[in-house]
Design a protein that fits this description.
- 31% of the residues lie in helices and 24% in strands.
- β7 (153-157), α4 and β8 (178-182) form a beta-alpha-beta unit.
- The longest helix is centred in the middle third of the chain and has 17 residues, at 77-93.
- An eight-stranded mixed β-sheet has the order 1-2-4-3-5-6-7-8, with helices on both faces.
- It has helices at 42-53, 77-93, 106-120, 165-174, 193-201; strands spanning 4-8, 11-18, 24-29, 57-61, 98-104, 127-134, 153-157, 178-182.
- With 205 residues, the chain is α/β, with parallel strands linked by helices.
Length: 205
């Protein structure tokens, strides 16, 4: 489906929905806008392909200031608002209420923060399914403060050169999350994108 613009708190947000006959939907968050992150990132599109092939509707989107989304980067606070705006829009477009949220790198923090907020305040009555975090940015954002479900799935490349992999491993193990470490992979999973799909398949639904 073609990209479209929806209203967010800072102006317009560029989104790309793919609707399917499903009672579930997955929303995916991209990596850091100031580091070239967009919804066309290969890890994001790999996540989207997995959910789409699983028969689930998928929405990817650009944070404020990226692509045709208006506004400027807002240090994570505004980007959490962007995610919640997308979820508001989704709730108005579809009767699907089973919700998966996924994110990569900076998007992993945003996904986790949004999921945490929905666990406490869920105006659209989404039925929260599972949170998938790929190389989440545990070093620079307050992920330790978030209330997250025990079945949160965390994936990290053993050779991550952006987020120290041991920081992610320690964070996930301290919370008893489901953790997968991809041997030989760096932060961007070059040459290891199929590993993302295989790990997701082993943990779905």
């Amino acid at each position: 489906m073609a990209d479209q613009l929806i209203q967010g708190n800072a102006g317009s947000l560029q989104i790309r929905p793919v609707w399917q006959e499903s009672d579930a939907i997955a929303v995916i968050c991209h990596p850091h806008p100031l580091m070239g992150g967009t919804m066309d990132n290969k890890v994001v599109t790999t996540l989207a392909r997995f959910f789409r092939n699983s028969g689930i509707s998928v929405v990817i989107f650009n944070f404020r200031g990226v692509g045709t989304s208006t506004g400027v980067h807002a240090q994570g606070i505004g980007e959490i608002e962007d995610l919640l705006s997308v979820l508001d829009w989704v709730a108005g477009q579809s009767s699907a209420r089973k919700l998966y949220i996924a994110g990569f790198s900076f998007g992993g923090y945003i996904a986790a923060a949004g999921f945490s907020e929905l666990m406490q305040y869920n105006p659209h009555q989404f039925v929260l399914q599972r949170l998938y975090l790929v190389a989440p940015a545990v070093k620079n954002y307050p992920m330790g403060d978030l209330v997250l479900p025990d079945d949160t799935f965390v994936m990290v490349g053993a050779e991550d050169e952006v987020v120290p992999p041991q920081d992610i491993i320690d964070w996930a193990n301290n919370r008893n999350f489901d953790l997968a470490v991809i041997a030989g992979s760096g932060h961007f999973f070059h040459g290891h994108l199929p590993d993302i799909g295989s790990q997701l398949e082993s943990r779905f639904p």
